[in-house]
């Protein structure tokens, strides 16, 4: 990557996620011709590795959408080509950005069915881990499900909810951010074939793709909006808890109501640790689709 196209990091900002880089909020044209052979090789390596791993682990909708969009290991996709397919399917548009955006800018994009995609890809020495979103995470992880009409509507509704929560205050925003984290980033879905991954943070990580489904260590708990909004999360390790939806329709329906009274009610409730199981949680076990209410006399 030459200096003319290096990401322009403008400032650092203290947030609930620690001290994070914030980039310019401008939309940038994808500098496709300036990707190096190394950049394409990084995409290929990651794409091939994750696709192989995700057969039978990621949701069918996710894998099918990647194929429909014409994503492949061959080379870094062109945003404008993906946009033709995506626009026709659900009216979403990918826009190039430098990286993580301030929350309100991010919400505004989503509310208007624009998904910001980081234009640069990680360096070869960052293949297994990068602390911030790069093109592989954004494009491979987030974009495919925008092809699904229900999920596409959920993302836009989330953006509108974000603009509202931002106006209400930091507590509301913290509660809403947890919903994004435990669904869009780290969500699991229960299917007739068993648990599958749909969260972008999981599908773009080799280690967490295996851990989230197959390790006995984390909790897998049935989706519950208020439970999620109360639950802290970790950004520096694999998750201690994953929440399991039954369908994208469930996600859409559960998040359709106005959250304002929910935020108000949650102010009186303690936040929950990332790794606890509470009475009333539906617990799923590793690798299976079987769930049952925990805390009863089973
Ligand atoms: N900006 N580009 C980008 N991508 C994200 O996923 C993103 C962001 N800014 C804020 C943000 N995510 C989170 O704070 C979510 O809570 C929305
Ligand atoms: Fe993400």
Automatic annotation (TrEMBL):
Record-linked CDD domains: pro_PheOH
GO biological process: L-phenylalanine catabolic process
Cleavable signal peptide: none
Alphabetic keyword roster: Iron, Metal-binding, Monooxygenase, Oxidoreductase, Phenylalanine catabolism
Keyword Oxidoreductase: yes
InterPro entries xref list: ArAA_hydroxylase, ArAA_hydroxylase_Fe/CU_BS, ArAA_hydroxylase_sf, Aro-AA_hydroxylase_C_sf, Aromatic-AA_hydroxylase_C, Phe-4-hydroxylase_mono
Coiled-coil regions listed: none
Cofactor(s) it depends on: Fe(2+)
Alphabetical list of SUPFAM superfamilies matching this protein: Aromatic aminoacid monoxygenases, catalytic and oligomerization domains
Pathway: Amino-acid degradation; L-phenylalanine degradation; acetoacetate and fumarate from L-phenylalanine: step 1/6
The keyword Iron appears for this protein: yes
GO molecular function, one term: iron ion binding
Family to which this protein belongs: Belongs to the biopterin-dependent aromatic amino acid hydroxylase family.
Name the record gives this protein: Phenylalanine-4-hydroxylase
Protein's organism: Stenotrophomonas maltophilia (Pseudomonas maltophilia)
């Amino acid at each position: 990557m030459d200096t003319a196209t290096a990401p322009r990091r403008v400032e650092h900002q203290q947030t609930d996620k620690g001290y994070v880089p914030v980039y310019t909020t401008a939309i940038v044209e994808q500098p496709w011709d300036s990707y190096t052979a190394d950049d394409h090789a990084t995409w290929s390596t990651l794409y091939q590795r994750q696709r192989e791993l995700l057969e039978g682990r990621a949701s069918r909708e996710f894998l099918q959408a990647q194929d429909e969009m014409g994503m492949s290991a061959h080379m870094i996709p062109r945003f404008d080509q993906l946009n033709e397919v995506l626009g026709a399917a659900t009216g979403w548009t990918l826009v190039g950005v430098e990286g993580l955006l301030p929350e309100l800018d991010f919400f505004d994009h989503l509310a208007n069915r624009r998904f910001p995609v980081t234009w640069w890809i990680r360096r070869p020495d960052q293949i297994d881990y990068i602390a911030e979103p790069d093109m592989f995470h954004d494009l491979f992880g987030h974009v495919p499900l925008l092809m699904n009409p229900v999920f596409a509507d959920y993302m836009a509704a989330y953006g509108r909810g974000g603009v509202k929560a931002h106006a209400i205050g930091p507590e509301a925003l913290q509660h809403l951010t947890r919903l994004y984290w435990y669904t869009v980033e780290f969500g699991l879905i229960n299917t007739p074939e068993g648990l599958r991954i749909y969260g972008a943070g999981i599908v773009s990580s080799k280690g967490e793709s295996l851990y989230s489904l197959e390790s006995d260590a984390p909790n897998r708990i049935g989706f519950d909006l208020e439970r999620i909004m109360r639950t802290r999360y970790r950004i520096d390790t694999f998750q201690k808890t994953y929440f399991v939806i039954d369908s994208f329709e469930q996600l859409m329906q559960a998040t359709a109501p106005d959250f304002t009274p929910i935020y108000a009610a949650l102010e009186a409730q303690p936040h929950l640790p990332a790794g606890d199981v509470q009475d009333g949680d539906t617990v799923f076990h590793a690798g299976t689709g079987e769930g049952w209410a925990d805390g009863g006399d089973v």
